[in-house]
């Protein structure tokens, strides 16, 4: 992570759920993503803000 990057506030995890599966998410610090293992999706975090759109999510391998 670069010094100018905005860090994700982990307290947001308590309020966020996967829009597809309606389940809780896990925070992947290295990839800056929120992971839904149930939906098999990874939602990106850009400038400290989670992008909770299924169309923007990456399918997990």
List keywords for this structure.
61 residues, N-terminal domain of TfIIb, five-stranded antiparallel beta sheet, mainly beta, single chain, 5 strands
Secondary-structure blueprint:
Blueprint: E1 26-28, E2 33-36, E3 41-46, E4 49-50, E5 58-59
Antiparallel strand pairs: 1-2, 2-3, 3-4, 3-5
What does this protein look like?
The protein has 61 residues and is an all-beta fold. It contains no helices and 5 strands. The protein has one domain: N-terminal domain of TfIIb, CATH 2.20.25. The protein has strands spanning 26-28, 33-36, 41-46, 49-50, 58-59. A hairpin with a 4-residue loop joins strand 1 (26-28) and strand 2 (33-36).
Q: Roughly how much helix do the residues carry, as a percent range?
A: under 10%
Please tally the helical runs, counting DSSP H or I stretches of 4 or more residues: 0
SSE order = EEEEE
Overall form? globular
Give the CATH topology: N-terminal domain of TfIIb
Distance linking N and C termini: 23 Å
Gyration radius, rounded: 11 Å
Give the biggest beta sheet. 5 strands, antiparallel
Uncertain residue segments? none
- How many DSSP-defined strands? 5
CATH architecture: Single Sheet
The overall number of domains is: 1
| Text of the CATH class | Mainly Beta
Class inferred from helices and paired strands: mainly beta
Overall average pLDDT = 91
State which percent range the strand residues make up.
25-35%
